[in-house]
Design goal:
The protein has 230 residues and is of the alpha/beta class. The protein is 44% helix and 12% strand. The protein contains eight helices and five strands. Strands 2-1-3-4-5 form a five-stranded parallel sheet, sandwiched between helices. Helix 2 packs across helix 7 and helix 5 packs parallel to helix 6. The N and C termini lie far apart (38 Å).
């Protein structure tokens, strides 16, 4: 029996939007929070920062509660890490996650990986590898969604002010754009109003400083992420 509500699984991008990344007065809400707010449904999130697909699978509890909608965005940490990147493992994990979500939700939607993930600024030395991985992962997500009957959400352009300097984590405006894309794919009303949050008064300078720090630390940060995951 469906009790209503939305259940979402994923990593840091689904878990939350950092308050540091508030831009243009858009509140610090994750994309799934925007979907739940617009749909007027309670939200349950099973997500952990840095989690690869196998870890996300283990986050799902074994319970009989059933939801109206299940949202899935899994695999970003697989793509950007040498440790976790195995395309067969990603496909098997994603297929199992979608199946488990379908067992507890009337409808399931999978967020596709954005093209710009392959151009993460902090991982620039590995750009060609990442671009190939993104294309392979996109094919996997499309295949799993088609086979399972899940809705495949085409992500918005995540560039410019919509993405943080690491090329991976959306700002608050990026999360809002992702939420709007999900709502459109699900034929649900778009977010039309929201309470504006105060943006950091020093956001522009802070972002420039963070970009310098990321560039300076890039060799160590990039290699660490590539080998060990986030």
């Amino acid at each position: 029996m469906t009790s209503g509500g939305i259940v979402a699984v994923g990593d840091s991008i689904t878990n939350a939007c950092s308050a540091d990344l508030v831009l243009d007065g858009v509140p610090a809400r994750s994309w799934v929070e925007w979907v739940a707010s617009a749909a007027g449904e309670p939200l349950t999130v099973h997500a952990r920062p840095g989690a690869a697909s196998a870890a996300v699978h283990d986050l799902l509890p074994d319970n009989a509660e059933r939801y109206r909608l299940g949202l899935v965005y899994v695999g970003v940490n697989n793509i950007i890490s040498w440790r976790w990147w195995r395309r067969d493992d990603l496909e098997a994990d994603l297929r199992n996650i979608v199946k488990r979500m379908a067992d507890r939700a009337d409808r399931v939607a999978v967020m596709q990986y954005p093209d710009t993930l392959g151009r993460a600024g902090t991982l620039a030395p590995y750009g060609p590898f990442l671009r190939r991985r993104v294309r392979a992962a996109q094919a996997i997500a499309a295949r799993v969604a088609a086979e399972s009957g899940a809705t495949l959400i085409q992500p918005p352009a995540l560039d410019g002010d919509r993405i943080w300097v690491d090329g991976v984590h959306p700002t608050s405006t990026g999360h809002l754009a992702m939420g709007q894309a999900a709502l459109a794919a699900l034929n649900l009303p778009a977010v039309d109003t929201f309470g504006h949050a105060p943006a950091r008064s020093d956001f522009a300078n802070w972002r420039r400083l963070e970009l310098v720090r990321f560039r300076f630390r890039q060799p160590i940060y990039g290699i660490g992420t590539w080998l060990l995951g986030r």
